[in-house]
Amino acid sequence: MGRRKRSQSDDYDDSIERKFLQRKESTSTNNEKSKTTTTTNKNNKTNNSYNNPRKDLDEITSGIENPKRSPSSSLFDNSKQLECSKDDIERQRQKKRAKKQRQKEKKLAEIQRVQEQEDAKRQNQQKLNQIRSEEKKRKEIEKTVPTSDIFIQTHKGVKYCDVQVGNGPVIQDRKKVRVKYTLRANNKHGKILDSSGNFSFKMGKGEVISGWEIGLLRMRQGGVRHIIVPPKVGYGSKDIGGGPGATLYFEVTLLQC
After folding, report:
1. d(Cα 149, Cα 151) in Å, to the nearest integer?
2. Distance between alpha carbon 46 and the CA centroid of its chain, in Å?
3. Using CA atoms, how far apart are residues 211 and 235, in angstroms rounded to an integer?
4. How far apart are CA 227 and CA 183, in angstroms?
5. Residue 132 burial by CB count (10 A; 0-12/13-18/19+): exposed, middle or buried?
6. Are 219 and 178 spatial neighbours (Cβ–Cβ below 8 Å)?
7. Which of 43, 40, 45, 73 is nearest to 59 (CA)?
8. How many CB atoms lie within 10 A of CB 107?
9. DSSP, res 68
């Protein structure tokens, strides 16, 4: 049987078809809008990734979960940390021991330095005391007044007395000697006519009066001698401050010969 043609006069309700067509058109329109929005979001995301690569990297890495570590790896890490802590402790101990050793050496060096200073000070004091003692002894010797009966008389009337016998070499003829002397008139308490702390001459060359050379014979270095010189082997009748024909009284210390 053939399909019956619908006539305009037939009563037919087409509202269902119209609703279907409207719904279809609305769906297609929404699909196109969603496609356009998706494309726009992709483009924006791409642009943002170019503008902020760090953010993109963070987003990528944030999605990666850290793998779970095995118990064996944890034990290995703990043992490694323990070994490192032991090494650090040992290193600190070595540093402390080295520091204590340096402090000890420094303290010992300071003690040694103080000891050396004290030894040097003690030695200097001993030398100073020795010098003072010798000076005091020399002054006492110089103040000594030999009696006339202890003077030894030699030829030409010259007399001498060794107040202190030296321990050095004996004066040699034709050799240079260096002496310290004081010349007085007549005796030990007489007027000082001349003096010198460092006088040099050669024995036997006639550089000094003959009575002085006679009185210095066989004298030793370091000794102190008093010499009485009569006018005939001295300055004769010449007045050198003690009057014409005065007797000369020498106090002689032999420094070097």
Report:
1. 6
2. 71
3. 9
4. 10
5. exposed
6. no
7. 45
8. 10
9. P
DSSP one-letter code for 228: E
Tokens of 52: 């902020």
Instruction: Per residue of the chain (257 residues), give pLDDT as tens.
Output: 444 544 444 455 566 667 667 776 776 666 666 666 665 555 555 555 445 555 554 554 444 444 455 555 555 566 666 667 777 888 888 988 999 999 999 999 999 999 999 999 999 999 999 888 888 877 776 666 666 668 888 888 999 999 888 889 999 888 999 999 999 998 888 889 999 999 999 998 889 999 999 999 999 999 999 999 999 999 888 888 888 888 999 999 999 98
CB atoms within 10 A of CB 202: 13
- CB of 161 within 8 A of CB of 152? yes
